[in-house]
Amino acid sequence: MTHVPAAAPGPQGRFPGFAVLRQAPRWDGVTALAIRSRVAPPATPRFFTAAEQATARALVGQLLDQPHDGLGVPVMEMIDARLAGGQTDGWRYEDMPEDGQAWRDTLANLDTDAKERFGAGFAACARREQAAIVQAVQDLGSRDWHGLLAGQVWSLWTRYACTALYAHPAAWDEIGFPGPAYPRGYKNIGVDAREPFEVRDTRPAQDPVRERL
Amino acid sequence: MRAGVRTRNESAWLLPNDGTRTNHRLRRDMRRFRDDDEVDLVIVGCGAGGSVLAQRLARAGWRVVAMDAGPFWDPDTDWVSDEAGSHDLYWTDPRVITGDDPVPLGSNNSGRGVGGSMVHYAGYTPRFHPSDFSTLRDDGVGADWPFGYEELRSYYAAIEQELPVAGEYWPWGDPHGYPHRPHPVGGNGELFLRGAERLGIEARVGPVAIANGRFGNRPHCIYRGFCLQGCKVNAKASPLITHIPDALAHGAEVRADAMVTRVGMDERTGRATGVHYVRDGASRFQRAAMVAIAGYSIETPRLLLNSASPRYPDGLCNEFDQVGRYLMVQGAPQTAGRFDAEVRMYKAPPPEVSTEEFYETDPAKDYKRGFAVQTVSPLPITWAEHVAAQGHWGRALRDYMSDYVHWACLGSLCEFLPLGGNRVTLADETDSYGLPVARFAYSQCDNDRALVTAAQHVMEDILTAAGADEVITIRRYAHLVGGARMAKDARHGVVDGTCRAFAVPNLYITDGSVLPTQGSANPALTIMAVAARAADQLISGARGRVG
Distances from the Cα of B267 to the Cαs of B37, B74, B270, B308, B311, in angstroms? Predict the structure, then answer.
């Protein structure tokens, strides 16, 4: 049996035909504007240098299995826009610099690791080499990575990456989430209850947990 | 009963009934005070505590200015039905976290703007239990309040009518009913109820501060699921719609976008003279006969510490090194269960069903105090955090995320104990106003950790009993209280039982930072009830206005 990735896009995915943006005419004006600007072509990066952009793109490509997902969500550019605008989460770990500097430092550290292990910058490494470097950072857990706690670095990366991807309607299509719901609301709530615009999961037993056991 | 509410708080009837959410005329015609006009009271912060105080005292004829660092929200134009787009609801100025168990701030527990954190709280409004007021006497842990539950009972009931709160009859703590019937539940609540029933655990629908049916000009909930992003419907209660309109109608001024930087003091008399604040880039000073700080558990201690002066070198009210201490968060592990059926937990409000079966100290356990279990229903970004916390990344993360509609999710609130080392101090770093930012240190004790583990097991059991084939947990935190607590004397706290500062006779603190313990209850209702009680005492005694 051919394994179809659960998160395959479009007709390959679990929610064929589901397209959140088709509901946009039913959203309130300010929400629709916010989502439309999010799906517009991204602004040219203002925060990352050209070299940092390449490293950051490769890193989020690893963390989120991009870009061959076909969704085209510009995660690196979305992170850059946040950092350029100083839009932080409202806290930082005492042992970490503020978020922008922490991104710059950790991207540089990835390059250092890549050169040491594979003789090339992180972005120039093969995907499996990049994956090995990323896995090594995660495996450090609460231990030191270039003077920072690896777990806090991991928190920074995954927070920014996931916040960007799962803010995007293309990612909502993939997971069956209908996005904005005002002023429409929901009328059919409860287990296995769907609205007319929601699409049933075609592979309800494709439980990633069960498959990994 | 509703008519009775209207005679003492007309807020819900002062909102428009034409499908828009803000009474612009009320705001435009709002009374405005000059900086050099000594008002009766200036309040710092328009959240749960500050707004209730403003409404009560304005009704009693006091001349009140209530400031907030953030905007005077209009739900129609300022809020979106979207997770990432709601970033401005949170306090995102820089803060530093540290300790053995650093606690993230921002979206997790810190609001900004008129309405405070209640703009983005889930909406759960349980009462504290009577036992929460004497944990030191009865359990040998925590602290005792200067007053007991009986003192708050009538204020709880009054606020429950004003929000209003919907839910089933509540059998725990001091048993009581609610003014609005319970809401219908979505998939997440249905599975919680099913699992609990199979295990013989009592669970109830509610208590949530979401109108079930029209309330004044506030419409019925539309089960949209975006409670944590600000309610564009005006169905979920926040002070922006439950207390501020009535305060304005009775002559209070709400001065938004005004960041208070320090409390003004007369160094000779030791009395507060008003507040220094920054608005539109200009430094100003509002004179006041009395000051009430209601900036919540991080900003209230920070303001006191930043108000240091020659007479108060270690910060205001800090002679005994109490400011910022005994700050508490609740351990809030979140456990999700996977079902082949579609749960679609994003539909219906995240707050649906609770149990307080495990709230009280159980002599059979090796820990004191307890926890509550409630539905929580994370939207995709927050859910991704839960999944990523399992260590998944890359393809595994994406596959897990594609499974979103099949997961139900419960959250616990564990009563972490008040510890002196868990506190706010000032960091070396400064913010855009040039003020030192808050540094918040947190470390758990053994009792805290034991509660989190016990709560996680109960949630796993409930979800498994409901039919889940796998459960995954993320350990996180919720809420803030303490940091300027009530006590019997200045050596043990910052304010007395009436919320008056021990050190400054015309300075009050009326927010969550005064709470000596937190129970396993979401704190909003109790913060409001404590502020309402303090307001009553001010009105009857008018202390601080004279002498």
Answer: 21, 40, 5, 11, 6
Compute the distance between CA of residue B101 and CA of residue B414 in angstroms, rounded to an integer: 15
What pTM was computed for the model? Answer: 0.97
Residue B355 lies in a domain: yes
Backbone angles phi, psi at A208, to 5 degrees: -60, -30
Find out whether B504 and B510 touch, Cβ atoms under 8 Å. no
Between CA B291 and CA B38 the distance in angstroms is 11
Q: Would strands B353-355 and B371-375 be described as parallel, antiparallel, or unpaired?
A: antiparallel
| Cross-chain Cβ contact A7/B401 below 8 Å | yes
User: B264 — phi, psi (to 5°)?
Assistant: -75, 135
Q: Could you write out the three-class secondary structure of B274-302?
A: EEEEEECCEEEEEEECCEEECCHHHHHHH
Q: Do B105 and A31 touch (CB under 8 A)?
A: no
Separation CA A83–CA A46 (nearest Å): 9
Strands in B423-430's sheet, in edge-to-edge order, are A92-93, B96-98, B436-441, B423-430
The number of domains in chain B is 1
* Residue B320 covered by a domain: yes
Would residue A183 be called left, alpha or beta, if left means φ above 0 and alpha means ψ between -120 and 50 degrees? Answer: alpha
Q: Which residues contact B473 (CB under 8 A, 6 or more apart)?
A: B333, B334, B335, B336, B456, B459, B460
Q: Å from B343 to nearest chain A CA?
A: 5
The greatest distance separating any two alpha carbons of chain A, rounded to the nearest whole angstrom, comes to 58
Whether residue B203 lies inside any domain: the answer is yes
Is the residue at B29 inside a domain? no
Residue-range definition of the domain harbouring residue B87: 2-11+35-541
Task: Single out the residue of B217, B218, B184, B190 nearest to residue B203, CA to CA.
Answer: B190
The SS3 call for residue B480 is: strand
- Which domain CATH number covers B138? 3.50.50.60
Which residues in chain A are closer than 8 Å to B77, comparing Cβ atoms?
A: 30
Q: Is B342 close to A204, i.e. CB distance below 8 A?
A: yes
- pLDDT tens for the 547 residues of chain B, in order: 445 899 999 999 999 999 999 999 999 999 999 999 999 999 999 999 999 999 999 999 999 999 999 999 999 999 999 999 999 999 999 999 999 999 999 888 899 999 999 999 999 999 999 999 999 999 999 999 999 999 999 999 999 999 999 999 999 999 999 999 999 999 999 999 999 999 999 999 999 999 999 999 999 999 999 999 999 999 999 999 999 999 999 999 999 999 999 999 999 999 999 999 999 999 999 999 999 999 999 999 999 999 999 999 999 999 999 999 999 999 999 999 999 999 999 999 999 999 999 999 999 999 999 999 999 999 999 999 999 999 999 999 999 999 999 999 999 999 999 999 999 999 999 999 999 999 999 999 999 999 999 999 999 999 999 999 999 999 999 999 999 999 999 999 999 999 999 999 999 999 999 999 999 999 999 999 999 999 999 999 854 444 3
Tokens of B524: 């909003």
In this complex, the residue of B107, B187, B383 whose CB is nearest that of residue A190 is: B187
